[in-house]
Amino acid sequence: MSLELALGFATAQHAWSWALLLAMAAKVGSTLALLAPKSGRQWRWVQRHEAPLWWTTKLSALALCACAAMLCHLGGDRPGERFFAGLLLVAVGLVAARVKRRLAD
């Protein structure tokens, strides 16, 4: 599997690469922020923004899969493209289940 990042500003591959990196940063940052109170740290900012952070963790997972699939597609890596497209479908199902459960609470 070959996933090539290109961090320029001129092509579609550059745009998808930046989107992938931003989605990664959003996923890691929001997950760490939500886990911090569980480790005994109480951050008021996290408490006030818990709902947007929760949505960020879920939507950034979908964005990661979509960006990776598109980068594989642009790079001609068909097995990688299929892998990440399949992973996106799994992620959509899991996120939908989590959203449904959260809305039911």
UniProtKB/TrEMBL annotation:
The chain crosses the membrane at residues 15-36, 57-76, 82-99. Keywords: Membrane, Transmembrane, Transmembrane helix. It comes from the Bacteria. This is DUF3325 domain-containing protein.
